[in-house]
Amino acid sequence: MERQIAALRAEKVAAEKAATERASAEQAAAAKAASERAAAQRAAEEKAAADRIAAEKSAAEQQRVAALQAEKERAERERLAREQAARDQAAREQAERERLRQEQERARLAAAAATPRVAIPAAEKRIALVIGNGQYDEGRLPNPQGDARLMDNALKAVGFDVTLQVDADYQAMRRAIQAFGAKLAAAGSEAVGLFFYAGHGIQAGGRNYLIPIKAKLAREADLEIEAVNAGVLLTQMEHAQSRLNLVILDACRNNPFTRGFRSAGRGLARMDAPRGTLIAYSTAPDNVAADGAGANSPYAAALADAIRQPGVPVERTFKDVRAKVLKSTGNQQVPWEASSLVGEFAFLPVVSGAPAPVTPAPAAGGADIEVVFWQSIQGSTDRSDFEEYLRQFPNGRFAGIARNRVRSLK
User: Fold this and answer.
1) Domain architecture of the chain: domains with CATH
2) CB neighbours (10 Å) of residue 345?
């Protein structure tokens, strides 16, 4: 009996233990299931968050790509617009060039029809030396540099090979005269030589001296050392044996150098012209000339205009200059010449067989001179040529073309 009771108790204990173990196992399973559900929920939430972030990133990337594409398209539109603008500008410039070319061609044809035929003989080489001195220590002269450049342009327009010296010192003047004499001699017996000087000049002891810049003239004896004797120039031209020589001296200004000179006179002294030479002075011997209130002296301005008149003999050219200077100075300045010319010469000779030129009225004359001047520069690439045209003919028939050339050559 006791053994039965003990067995029952043991069985009961075993049953209770089994029940406890089942309960523990069930609790553990429930806890594991709850943990798995929590982990699954966390995983789901994390996945949802990751999906949301991915979606946001995708949307941002799409927006960035869209913005980049829009920027690319805008840049492309701008590039195309710039290229089109460049093509339009090139077309406008080409059209303007063509318009200018046609205007120039029309002007050339009009000038050719309106102008007497002029031609310089092939054997007649024209050699010129132009010097303009104004930057003196004793006081600057306002016009000689501009006068020299004006004559440089004018002489080139009528076929001269011009050497230009502006503000030349003693050595520069002497060397330029020496080189001029050599070039003139090499040009042959049919050559024409021309010397133009603007600046201070002094007569002393019956001789004329051209004054370089930086000259130190404390006494009359210094002239032979510091100044250029005009006789040196005449000697160079005479030895060249050219058929015709022109010496033009716009050098009769009031002088600051002569206060201590015993034999110095006013202006320049008369010089005898060697055979085949014309010596022109901007005013009569022993008188002084005006420098002028404008950009050029009255004499240089008149001379630059006169030498462009077709078919005019050289003697009449200087008569015309004298008339213009007398008028512009109120009869105060009388240009003067000494001549021993034996041949014929015109700055712009008319072709044989062409009608002889008739001295025109002032307006017509201005037009003839204008056409000849324009013909001489229309193919130039030097902006100063067209500026000089506009200075002389501000309302001329080619003024529009000249202004365009000035702009295009800047």
Assistant:
1) 115-351 (3.40.50.1460)
2) 18
First to last CA, the chain: 139
- Which tens digit of pLDDT belongs to each residue from 380-398? 777 887 888 888 888 888 8
Distance CA 63, CA 55 (A): 12
Which residues does residue 245 pair with via DSSP β-bridges, in sequence order?
Answer: 193, 277
- How many Cα atoms are found within 13 Å in the side-chain-facing hemisphere of 52? 6
Q: Report pLDDT digits (tens) over 311-354.
A: 899 999 999 999 999 898 888 888 989 999 988 899 988 765 44
Residues sharing a CB contact under 8 Å with residue 198, sequence separation 6 or more, in sequence order:
131, 132, 133, 134, 143, 144, 147, 148, 151, 250, 251, 297, 300
280 DSSP β-pair partners: 248, 337
DSSP, collapsed to helix, strand or coil, labels residue 140 as: coil
> How far is the C-alpha of 393 from the C-alpha of 239, rounded, in Å?
40
CA separation for the pair 190, 123 (Å, rounded) = 6
Can you tell me the distance from the alpha carbon of 342 to that of 243, in angstroms, rounded to the nearest whole number? 9
What is the distance, to the nearest Å, from the Cα of residue 231 to the centroid of all Cα atoms in its chain? 38
- The number of beta carbons lying within 10 Å of the beta carbon of residue 340 is 13
Q: Are 360 and 368 in contact (CB under 8 A)?
A: yes
Q: Which amino acid is at 101?
A: R
Highest mean pLDDT among 198-212, 234-248, 321-335, 340-354: 234-248
Of 111, 223, 215, the residue nearest 170 (C-alpha): 215
Radius of gyration of the chain (CA): 49
H or E stretch covering 133? none
Does this model's pTM top 0.70? My answer is no
Concatenate the DSSP letters of all residues of 173-190 into one string: HHHHHHHHHHHHHHT-TT
